[in-house]
Amino acid sequence: MGPISSTITRLYGPRGWLALGAFAFVLFVIFPLLSLVVPAGNPLHISAYGVTLIGKIMCYAMVAVAMDLIWGYTGILSLGHGLFFALGGYGMGMYLMRQIGRDGQYKADMPDFMVFLDWKEFPWQWWNSDQFWWALMLVVLVPGLLAFVFGYFAFRSRVKGVYFSIITQALTYAAMLLFFRNNTGFGGNNGFTDFKRILGVSITTDGARIVLFVITGAALIGTLLLGRYIVTSRLGRVLTAIRDAEARVMFCGYNTVQYKLFIWTLSAVLCGIAGALYVPQVGIINPSEMSPANSIEIAIWVAVGGRGTLVGPIIGAGLVNGAKSVFTQLLPEYWLYVLGLLFILTTLFLPQGVVGLLARLKGRPA
Amino acid sequence: MSGTVTHAMSGAGSAEATLGRQSTGELDVTHGVVLYLEDLTVSFDGFRALNRLSLSIDVGELRCVIGPNGAGKTTMMDVITGKTRPEAGRAFFGQTIDLTRLSEAEIAHAGIGRKFQKPTIFEHLTVFENLELAMKADKRVRTTLFARLAAAERDRIAETSRLIRLDAAAARVAGALSHGQKQWLEIGMLLVQEPKLLLLDEPVAGMSDEETERTAELILSLAGRHSVVVVEHDMAFIAKIARRVTVLHEGAVLAEGPLADVQNDPRVIEVYLGR
Q: Which of A81, A113, A228, B182 is packed most tightly, with the most Cβ within 10 A?
């Protein structure tokens, strides 16, 4: 067997690849057809709202996979992953703000909020922000560098368990307060919105929506396969070993700080990419994305779907967010209770999440 | 990397030099001493766990360390493996490697393997995978991500799992093993690491008589090829394997010598029976 074919068989068996192929077919063929070709009156037509909703959930699913790598496999619970998602979103948002050009309310060269604040020139953070390639760099580098520096100090000081979780929670909270300030230069509590174009193309057309949708789908599948490659490698087994008995891993001669730093930074970068795909589809980014509750919700998606399974968190993100969009329309004031209850029930009765339940129903141990 | 000419104990030393950042210099045992502890002192909240402890272990020696609870046996192992830093004193591996300056991972690379009191294995991985991770290899992140098992490595794992009598259980999840099997797996993990010095903290705790017997054979077969330090409470087990015994008491060496001499030492009798 060649190295490529052996890698393919290592990632998934024939049934796994078949399921993934079917998923890709639905995303890349059926969905665009139902949205673009089938006319609006037809019951099979998928509306712009539907496309955006599923696109948004796929971004969340990417975050859930990233969270599973660090929490499910390595045993490090981050309660600040929303921060990396939001930073990726802001990186893309800056570019989208520049693409508005003179079509804003004030018909000015600068974004509306800057005109409103009577700023005459762009602050330093906005350097090069009209360049798409620079936006892509920011999307990867800002969450990546922040995670690397934070992780370096936290892991080197051997901050673990609940202490680590609390610090990540504080980090995202502090960032939220920072971004709420107008002086920070990112539109304060309103954030960025009213986007018009991306790469000169209108962002509100059905065609643009579907292109973003397909790119997001490809990014999600790519994230899943990358995650699968990592967890089936020897490095993946080292991560699981760190989760189970870190001292033994060190006495085996592994520098666990470097391993944790690698997976932590990668996880943050994946969240940044997800955030960058989220913003043009949803059309808004503001500091509430950094609220502690958002980051806790990410952990709930992973727990509901099944930790340490990669596919589980995707299912979890889909189920919880699907339920959320139904509930927030029908009984908005009860959603948080439902979410809390879901988390408690999962922890008590489904320690392996939905995927574990399915495996049990099939008669296999999870 | 030290540029000095050293006489490595075995050919394995040169492989270590290629490990780049993890390199800690080669083990130099020209004077026949593999481990040298001098005046080690460690205290926790005023309690002196080690009180000017001095000890040396020869190349290929099998040494048993005994002593009542709180005598400092585990703390001594913690200092040797880099988990605890001493307040005073020196700890050298061979002539040149200063253990008090290295991290746990660097000490493991230098060639010291440790078995914990409570068996510590990777419960969610299989027996085979446990041995795979422990095996001597380049353990940096990137090489580990793209690592593939060579046929020789597979053979080495198979050979070790036969030695620890877990060849039939190679595909089983380690968490499902019996207590004694877990102890053996941990010893097997140390062996594939190819250490020059093995530290075994209570290797037969919780084992059946037959398992204990088998472990004694295993440890005796290691002596000579490796230097081994065994910390144990079980005197019957000590009697089976002991050549030279060190008795620790209140963080310092109380007596040292052949088992029979030590057992008849009035100070040792007082410490063990006097209260």
A: A81
